[in-house]
């Protein structure tokens, strides 16, 4: 519970720091900024709340590798943004950050956690295109990059009451095997 309170405070500080810039931003920019930070903060907080320290380490590695790969590509490709602001359009950093958190939640804890996070991450990407900060290819590249990296560093979380069901096919029979941990 303490980690959720801490995460909430961090999230509130980040949100309030962006609100000072809100008047200068287009509609959706503030939400994209908050989503790009908030989704990963929530993902890491869930790992800490579950006392899943191995999972938190996987989250941190995914975030670090995603950030490094995104920045390396931005400064290598040097694609101009649709609004002409600068030449750091490809891939979308907001999208890669949001999709990294969403991917971690889905790969580690399942679709119950992943679907809402993927919806939020998709909205982040949509707003970046809608407000002409990125092309669709930038958003898709950020999402694919983050998802791939997180997939490579994340193991499925198995709690103490897990169930595994698998098909069994051999020369003698076809069936289903179930394994329960408690």
Automatic annotation (TrEMBL):
CDD domains for the chain? PAP2_like_5
- GO molecular function: any one? phosphatidate phosphatase activity
> Domain named Phosphatidic acid phosphatase type 2/haloperoxidase: which ranges?
54-154
GO CC: one term?
Answer: membrane
Q: Where is the signal peptide?
A: 1-22
Q: Which residues form a coiled coil?
A: none
GO annotation, biological process: phospholipid dephosphorylation; phospholipid metabolic process
Localization terms from the record: Membrane
| InterPro entries listed in its UniProt record | PAP-like, PAP2/HPO, PAP2/HPO_sf
Q: Which UniProt keywords apply?
A: Membrane, Signal, Transmembrane, Transmembrane helix
- UniProt membrane topology term: Multi-pass membrane protein
Q: Which domain of life is it from?
A: Bacteria
**Its family?**
Belongs to the PA-phosphatase related phosphoesterase family.
The protein's name: Phosphoesterase, PAP2 family
